[in-house]
Amino acid sequence: MAHTFSQFGIEIEYMIVDVESLDLLPVSDKILRDTSGNIANSVEHGPITWSNELVMHVLEFKTSQPAKSLEGLVESFHQSILDAEKRLRKSGACLLGTAMHPWFEPFDGVKLWHHEDREIYDTFDRIFDSRGHGWSNIQSFHLNLPFEVSDDESFRRLHSAIRLVLPLIPAIAGSSPFLEGRSTGLLDTRLETYRNNCIRIPSISGGVVPEVYRSHAEYKAEVFDVIANDLRTLDPEGILEPEWTNARGVIARFDRGSIEIRVGDVQECPDQDLAIIQLVVHLVK
Fold first, then answer.
1. All residues at 6 or more sequence positions from 115 whose CB lies less than 8 Å from its CB, including other chains
2. Quick check: 218 pLDDT over 80?
3. pTM score, two decimals?
4. Structure confidence at residue 1 (pLDDT)
5. What does the mean pLDDT of the chain come to?
6. Count of other CB atoms within 10 angstroms of residue 92
7. What gap in Å lies between CA 70 and CA 79, rounded to an integer?
8. Buried b (16+ CB within 10 A) or exposed e, 251-260
9. Do the beta carbons of residue 140 and residue 263 sit within 8 Å?
10. What is the number of helices (H) and of strands (E) in the chain?
11. How confident is the model at residue 197 (pLDDT cuts 50, 70, 90)?
12. Rounded-to-integer distance, Cα 32 and Cα 52, Å
């Protein structure tokens, strides 16, 4: 298992928009194709993988494998974005940065991913109504940092350090001051909508900044087991797994030995995203 700060997993989400009007276009499945031309949830393009999201107007770019250094990732993400845009142009589309589309009104119509794993997205939609901004209009960057799964102290130290840094990230990364064509008075409207998108089951998001947890067992009892219990009535089939339904601002992924930071608004280009990520890493250290 990787030691803390020995590798980094980065994910960056972009909106797909009409190249002329900049209105959102739900065409991610036009370029999420495997080598046989079949629609796929994820397609690896060298160091960067393209993946689907809940809605079909969002495309995620992520490191295909955890990177041993942040150096060189800007160029890899930038080139992958250019490649994606070249393919999207065939559908009259391009990519748009920043965390929220400034005039999109999701209740006018949102197209969910309707291919592989459709039952998961349909379940989210049935329980939470994914037409809201908190589901269909929030683009963020995620930073994954590893810890020793067998060592509770490794988990506790990293999780506790991230908790202290978490409130600082929106202050430097907020890129969502507009909603439905008007100024909201907030620099980070995305986070405001994000924290309320699971209000029907508050245990899923918690307080965004999580409580202190000292061990895997404590986290399971106070987070995963509570989410599972609260979901039981609305999701009797158990389609939504608590470990990846958990939507706090930073989440523990014991299945892959990492802690994922999720509160950063996407910027205008990967150069800006990676600069903020580098700062976050240094602060956590």
1. 29, 39, 41, 52
2. yes
3. 0.95
4. 58
5. 94
6. 13
7. 16
8. bbbeeebbbb
9. yes
10. 10, 10
11. confident
12. 8
Tell me 2's DSSP state. Answer: P
∠ CA 39-42-47, rounded to 5°: 135
CB-CB neighbours of 59 under 10 Å: 24
H helices present in 68-117, as ranges: 73-88
* Cβ atoms of 97 and 190 closer than 8 Å: no
pLDDT band for 108, please (50, 70, 90 cuts): low
Give tens-digit pLDDT for 221-250: 999 999 999 999 999 999 999 998 999 999
Which token pair is 250? 């930073």
For residue 254, the one-letter residue type is F
Residues ≥6 apart with Cβ < 8 Å to 116: 39, 40, 41
pLDDT (tens digit per residue) in 29-50? 999 999 999 999 999 999 999 9
- Rounded Cα distance between 220 and 254, Å, is 10
Residue ranges of domains in the chain, CATH in brackets:
9-284 (3.30.590.20)
What CA–CA distances, in Å, run from 143 to 29, 102, 113, 134, 198? 25, 25, 24, 20, 22
- Residues contacting 229, CB < 8 A, separation 6+: none
